Automatic annotation (TrEMBL):
UniProt keyword annotation of Protease present: yes
Organism of this sequence: Steroidobacter agaridevorans
Cofactor(s) the protein needs: Zn(2+)
Keyword Hydrolase carried by entry: yes
Domain Csd3-like second N-terminal residues, every copy: 199-321
Protein name in UniProt: Peptidase M23
Keywords on record: Hydrolase, Membrane, Metal-binding, Metalloprotease, Protease, Transmembrane, Transmembrane helix, Zinc
A GO biological-process term: proteolysis
Compartments, record wording: Cell envelope
């Protein structure tokens, strides 16, 4: 054994000498230096592994492919892409309804406030004023856009101040829609029709009119319409209402796309006050020249004077010739009616007339006196301020002449109202007021037909038994 190792070493040295260019053994040469038998054994193992591993992988791939059936499908022949004809692209028209309707950008819903203008709104929102000028220059858009009302909602979509779209409701049945186009803007009016439904309801007053209305499911707006626009010439709802009074109404409710959006006009109304039945129906002629509330006999509900010169509220002091003055603490006739109301409440002219006096007058404070003709005049005292009126100016019934306050000898904000005939004070609550004229004769037949239909609906409701003797004079 020892001799064999020496012989091997000797052969190694001789090999080095036979190759003088190799000055030293490399790492590979040192690694490969093994007995011949060991190198052969390693080569055999690597050879077997090279045969077995592809075979195992092929078996696994065959199993997977067989499970999904891909190997069972016939193989498509190879296609030479160079021999294919040129690809033809067909033009497809996309329906407008299928296109996205959303507009990219920041959305702002602006609620119009008092004294707002479109220019002020654009400046406040830091929007492009050139866009506003372009929008307003489009035919018929300026008028629809500039008639702003407090509470209106304007929806704007903008991209860093550049307007992409603008929408606002211009009526109950129409929306103005402005959108940016390739050049400038496009505008259209979108119709949104309403579904009008008639509703009938009735109620009995136990404590107050508003409580009875709420119990009957009637909104305050509808009740105020009844009190101020229909029966306000015959009934002082601030003082004349008492327990046991009844109301019966047929009115409109408005829906859009199945959603309730508000109440409409009262079409017919009954009000039983202290045993007297007051009735009214809405009538609008086919030609549109007559539209108002009328009594069943064709007389207008409107009279020359309102019972109360301000919106339905409450009375703090009634007409009383022996009232003790709250400030002077002595008996002084109270020759009018005091309506307690918040400072700033609108005061209306009770009838058509001419401004005879506007200014300060002793204990009345700021006062307005109107002359109505026929020896009738009305006085309005303790105002906080006047409306834009002047001496000698003509005013219409219901127009604003001032605002409730507490100027002069007043313990709190209220309106002092007087009604005089030839200089003599009359109780505004009970004085007989001049009647309004009847409906024009050429519309009477049409009125009888339409009003009969509405009154029949009230009668069927059973809220009141209508007799000629019970009708108000």
């Amino acid at each position: 054994m020892r001799e064999s190792r020496q012989a091997a070493q000797l052969g190694f040295r001789k090999g080095l000498q036979a190759n003088p260019s190799t000055s030293a053994p490399t790492a590979r040469t040192a690694f490969d230096y093994k007995p011949q038998s060991a190198r052969s054994s390693n080569h055999a193992r690597w050879f077997v592994s090279g045969l077995v591993l592809p075979l195992i992988g092929g078996l696994i791939a065959y199993g997977v492919a067989t499970r999904d059936g891909s190997l069972l499908a016939p193989r498509e022949p190879a296609v030479n892409l160079a021999n294919l004809p040129p690809l033809e692209i067909a033009e497809v028209e996309i329906p407008t309804s299928a296109m996205p309707t959303s507009i990219l950008g920041d959305t702002v819903e602006y609620v119009v406030r008092r004294n707002d203008t479109m220019d002020r709104i654009f400046r406040q929102l830091k929007l492009n004023l050139t866009d506003l000028a372009a929008i307003r220059d489009m035919p018929s858009v300026q008028e629809q856009l500039d008639q702003l009302r407090v509470g209106d909602i304007i929806t704007l979509v903008h991209d860093e101040g550049l307007v992409q779209s603008l929408t606002r409701r211009i009526s109950e049945t129409a929306i103005l829609s402005v959108t940016r186009a390739n050049e400038g803007f496009n505008a259209e009016v979108i119709e949104t029709p309403l579904d009008i439904q008639e509703v009938q309801t009735e109620g009995t007053i136990d404590s107050s009119l508003f409580v009875a209305a709420r119990a009957a499911g009637v909104s305050p707006e509808v009740i105020l319409q009844m009190a101020n626009d229909i029966f306000g010439w015959d009934i002082d709802f601030a003082l004349d209402i008492q327990p046991g009074d009844k109301f019966n109404l047929v009115y409109e409710q408005k829906y859009r796309d199945g959603k309730f959006i508000g109440n409409g006009r009262i079409l017919a109304a009954d009000f039983m006050n202290n045993g007297t039945l007051h009735r009214a129906v809405w009538f609008e002629s086919k030609d549109g020249k007559v539209s108002d509330y009328f009594r069943p006999d064709g007389r207008s509900v409107r009279r020359a004077f309102l019972r109360a010169p301000l919106e339905f509220t409450r009375i703090s002091s009634n007409f009383n010739p022996k009232r003790r003055h709250p400030i002077l603490n002595k008996i002084r006739a109270h020759k009018g009616v005091d309506y307690a109301a918040a400072t700033g409440t609108v005061i209306k002219a009770a009838g058509d007339g001419r401004v005879a006096f506007v200014g300060n007058k002793g204990g009345y404070g700021r006062v307005v006196i109107l002359e109505h003709g026929g020896g009738v005049s009305t006085l309005y005292g303790h105002m906080s301020r006047f409306a834009s009126i002047r001496n000698g100016q003509r005013v219409r019934q219901g127009s604003t002449i001032g605002y409730v306050g507490s100027s002069g000898a007043a313990t709190g904000p209220h309106l002092h109202y007087e009604y005089l005939v030839n200089g003599v004070h009359k109780n505004p609550r009970t004085v007989l007021l001049p009647e309004a004229g009847p409906i024009p004769e050429e519309y009477r037949a049409e009125f009888v037909t339409k009003s009969g239909q509405m009154l029949a609906k009230l009668d069927r409701a059973g809220a009141a038994t209508v007799t000629t003797a019970a009708l108000a004079p």
